[in-house]
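Input.
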Amino acid sequence: MRAFETLLAAATALTALAMPAAAQTLTIWSRSGQGDTLEAVAKAYGESHADKVAVVTLPVDEFVQKYATAIAAGNAPDAVALDLIHTPTFAQAGQLEDLTAWAKGLPYFGALSPAHLSVGTYQGKVYGLPLTTETSVLAWNKDLFRKAGLDADKGPTTWAEWKADAARVTALGGDTHGFYFSGACGGCYIFTFTPLVWASGGQILVDDGAKATLDTPALKDGVDFYRSLVAGGMVPASSRTDTGSDFLSIVDGKIGLQSIGASQIGVLTIKYPDLHFGVTLIPGRDGGTSSFVGGNNIVVTKGAKSVKAVEAFMEYVYSPEGQRLMVRHGSLPARSDIAADVMKGQDPRYDVAVAAIAVGRTPYSPLFNDIINSPNGPWAQMMNAAIFGADPASAIRDGQTRMQDVIDAAK
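Output.
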């Protein structure tokens, strides 16, 4: 009898080993306004794997609060496509799973977007990895350049060239202007202005966001550059009060230069086929380049039971097949080692946007909304006052003090 029981137990164990694990549905939350990139790759994954991925889209302006509320209530989703700027907030709060061992075991870990990893890492541990990728670049209107007697195929590589090009376009007269930026939008400034600072050797935050560094020569020089464009009549007066609603003013065909996002290359190409434009990396004062790297990190909620399922899905996302699919649906590749291959056949202007990943940055701060994005926050208020006000030095000093006060109050 004992021999039979032993054989029965062994057979049962072998049967259990032979049975495949039950398929499951992985739920990922995403914010609105991100296109169909995640949905497309989730659909493809489900068609080729036993597991399925359900993407739940929430309003962008409610997303962070809803995720925080769900965590507190114990009903948060398995994973979230989180705006990468918010990764430090949830990582420092201890609300995300540590993905370090799996992430660093990936043979292509070193090729993943460094900006995504910089904000996805806390105290040496990885809590967020790149899912979708966006960069900022400088666009110019080729037709206006040509009319102004400029080389229509060459964008500026220094601030002096940028200013000279803007002046020549503005000289065309009428309501044509050389440059445009949204002057009352903190998020816009971080996307389009900070690359000037970074490319010139400066920073706005250091020590994992614990110290503000606004009152520096690099930022002051950037402000002076923008002020000179405004003072020279090269920027429309409406820029001063634009909160971002007119961000893509280059579509009017009357703006010579404007910093845009990589995703907007497709928007301009499809919706405005008569707009002939080029793109280049955002230059520093005397050369050098930089970019703001945006997009989403994939994060896993602390205590989630589907960590392995998330890892399996992300390995598909990072595969050449997954990366090609992501690119076709609007994201830049997350892996530099296969970027050239997966970008084949795409608009060559995207090559500039991809190159921006290597030189781009994302500020690290668990208080990003409070100090950067908020229209009443220190960054937005400081930038508007410094560029359009009478005393830029005082505005910068005040912004430095206010930002550091917010940071210190949260410690």
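Residues 37 and 329 are 5 Å apart (CA to CA).
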